[in-house]
Amino acid sequence: MSVHYRQGPENRFPAASEDVASVYAALLEQYPAENIGIEGCSAGGILAAQAMLWFQKHNLPRPGAIGVFCTGFDFLRGGDSKVIATIFNGVSSSTPVLPQIAYFEGADMNDPLATPAVSPDALAKFPPTLFLTGTRDMMMNDCIASHVKLLKAGAESHLYITEGWGHGTVWNAPGVTEATDALNVIWNFFDFHLGN
User: Fold this and answer.
1) Which of 11, 19, 29, 68 could be bridged to 45 by S-S, CB 3.0 to 4.6 A?
2) Domain span at 112
3) Position 4 in a domain
4) Phi–psi pair at 157, nearest 5 degrees
5) Is the four-CA dihedral 88, 90, 96, 100 of positive or negative sign?
6) For the residues 11-23, what does the mean pLDDT come to?
7) How many domains in the chain?
């Protein structure tokens, strides 16, 4: 199912986390947590990670697995992919993403609920996590750094990188071999980690 969560610029953090938690709580009435997987791409991938912190704070059981695609959750660091990828994506690295900036307006980005990477204790409680990115994705460094932080925290984390991908290419190139391969990786990951 797809969650129609509140976004910026009309809404502010943590509205989207609240929406995911509401849907998740409703699903828990019908399914055990270990049978539920959560995934998202780009802003949705960030939200999947933020939801784990929200669930922890509100004593919701962790899902069976999550997917964080085309992004990471270590916003307080830089990385050369944000500069290099602009050559291939035709977007200035200084171009603000206004809805996301507005969404986090007034939020403390050192709060783990906003930036999960700042809390190793919270990361240690993450379910098995799959990261997916491409070598031309502006968020590749953030994705890799987040994967490493999960590993350092002792959580199970997997990283899949495809040569030549840009941001969100897996969803924009259906039928292309690399996209099909990536979708199979996603399927197999959730099939392995979720309950029956």
Assistant:
1) 68
2) 15-193
3) no
4) -140, 140
5) negative
6) 96
7) 1
Quote the crossing angle between the two packed helices 15-28 and 43-57, to the nearest 10°.
70
- The CA distance from 173 to 171, in Å, is 6
Predicted pLDDT at 156: 98
Structural tokens at position 96: 């603000």
Q: What is the pLDDT of residue 83?
A: 63
171 lies in some domain = yes
Residue 164 confidence (pLDDT): 84
Among 170, 77, 172, 101, which residue's Cα sits nearest to residue 130?
170
Of 183, 189, 179, nearest in space to 129 by CA: 189
Give the 3-state secondary structure of 160-175.
Answer: EEECCCCCCHHHHCCC
- What is the model's pLDDT at position 37? 98
76 neighbors 115 (Cβ within 8 angstroms): yes
pLDDT for position 175: 83
36: which 2 tokens?
């539920």
